[in-house]
Amino acid sequence: MLQEYDRVRERIVAGVPGQSGVPVEGLASESLLNCPTGVAVDGSGNLYVADSGNSVIERISPDGTLTVIAGRVGRFWPARPGRATKRYMNMPTGVAVNAKRYVYVADPHNAQVEVVSPSGTLSVLAGQANRHGARPGFPTEGPAAQSALATPCAVALDEAGYLYIADPQNGVVERVDPAGTLTIAARIPGKWWSAMPDAAWDYEAAAEAEGGFQCGGLMGVAVDRASGIYIADFYNCVVVQLTPRGFGAGPGRAVDATA
Asked: Positive or negative CA dihedral for 113, 128, 83, 53?
């Protein structure tokens, strides 16, 4: 059994070890990639790749066929609504996909989170940019499309369709409900090199004591219905589990830093 696992583990799905380059649609195992940073799998076994260095999102089907579904290779500009393969991204780093195959993209250099529909249309879920580039800022609770972000670098979905966004420059995890309303799910204190507290309401108090919300290491996020939010803290070399009051009472419940 161990040998079988080893063979699966070592199989390269896409890209060539030690080489970077432009993706070629067709057989994924014969295509180059350029600094892929995020992956997600849908219920049909399609693999989605945030190919950061190429500024595109690729889909690899179960038969190994690679298709670029969003972005234009080598073009680094703010995203605009429209046909996804005719629009730009700027080194996207995170990707998530829901049961209906809507693909959510963390695009930190554009300070945006974008959504690619199954029909191939791109829209901006949250974040602000103009033709000159990103306009990073602190999020405003309410309609996500009207809120700023700073560096959304990772995204995750829960069973109820709530999207969680790791936004390290703002030191927060944002949550966007299926109706498009953004709230702050957790605040992270302004210490770069200290392990984080155990619960979100401790984060609020610690951050107030420090006089601000800055975090250097919040680089990844995942959500579990029973346990809460998991945060990958790059600089502190830890993974933190947040288990707030009320979590587990139903899908979509998240860390409430203001509780």
From this structure: negative
How far apart CA 202 and CA 153 sit, in angstroms, is 24
Residue-wise pLDDT for 144-155, tens only, equals 999 999 999 999
Q: Which residues contact 189 (CB under 8 A, 6 or more apart)?
A: 171, 196, 197, 203, 206, 207, 209, 210, 213, 215
What is the pTM assigned to this prediction? 0.81
Q: Counting Cβ atoms within 10 Å, is residue 76 exposed (0-12), middle (13-18) or buried (19+)?
A: middle
Q: Are 97 and 40 in contact (CB under 8 A)?
A: yes
142, pLDDT greater than 70: yes
Find out whether 127 and 112 touch, Cβ atoms under 8 Å: yes
Token pair listed for 190:
């302004």
- Per DSSP, the three-state class of 4 is helix
User: Torsions phi, psi of 27, nearest 5?
Assistant: -70, 115
